[in-house]
């Protein structure tokens, strides 16, 4: 299964913020949308990704001052990306090896979506269940 299959099942688009947005605003967006990360986009170009973890770490270091910082101050610059043609297995490996839970999707240099570790795990489980059912049907038909 490819990431394109996951993207087709999700609502189109992604949530992004500008690099100069204050962290207090980013927190409000994360809470309002019930998501764990936002893409940082400037001029239609992906410049970074900012997760709840990034914000929590900044709060631990700088306390309340972190809320006055900008998305650009805390974001991960040049994040790892995948393409719609990346397999679910490859995406899981990238996320596990890189210790991150959100993967921006780029197609021909254009940001087209975002998948989470939850998305890829669900897709992998669905794929495994389908394979098991196919094998059951095959075995039952052969007996």
Distance separating the two termini? 30 Å
| Count of the domains | 1
Chain-averaged pLDDT: 92
Give the class from helix and strand content and strand pairing.
alpha+beta
Number of strands: 6
CATH topology: CBS-domain
The shape, in one word, is: elongated
Question: Quick one: CATH superfamily?
Answer: CBS-domain
Flag low-confidence runs.
none
In the CATH scheme, the class would be Alpha Beta
The CATH architecture classification is: Roll
Q: Would you kindly provide a brief summary of this structure?
A:
This protein is an alpha+beta fold. The protein is built from six helices and six strands.
Describe this structure in words.
With about 140 residues, the chain is α+β, with helices and mostly antiparallel strands. The protein has one domain (about 5-140): CBS-domain (Roll). The protein has 6 helices and 6 strands; from the N terminus they run H-E-H-E-E-H-H-E-H-E-E-H. The protein has helices at about 5-10, 25-35, 50-60, 70-75, 90-100, 115-140; strands at about 15, 35-40, 45-50, 75, 100-105, 110-115. It has a 4-stranded mixed sheet with strand order 1-2-3-4. A hairpin with a 2-residue loop joins strand 5 and strand 6 (about 110-115). Helix 5 crosses helix 6. It is elongated, with a radius of gyration of 18 Å. The two termini are about 30 Å apart. The model has no long low-confidence stretch (mean pLDDT about 90).
């Amino acid at each position: 299964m490819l990431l394109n299959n996951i993207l087709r099942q999700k609502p189109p688009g992604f949530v992004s913020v500008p690099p100069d947005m204050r962290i207090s605003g980013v927190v409000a967006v994360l809470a309002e949308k019930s998501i764990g990360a936002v893409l940082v986009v400037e001029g239609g170009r992906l410049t970074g990704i900012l997760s709840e973890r990034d914000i929590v770490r900044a709060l631990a270091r700088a306390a309340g001052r972190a809320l006055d910082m900008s998305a650009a101050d805390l974001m991960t610059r040049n994040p790892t990306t995948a393409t719609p043609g990346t397999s679910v297995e490859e995406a899981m490996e990238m996320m596990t090896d890189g210790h991150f839970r959100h993967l921006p999707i780029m197609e021909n240099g254009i940001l087209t979506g975002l998948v989470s570790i939850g998305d890829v795990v669900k897709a992998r489980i669905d794929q495994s269940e389908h394979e098991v059912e196919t094998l059951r049907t095959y075995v039952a038909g052969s007996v």
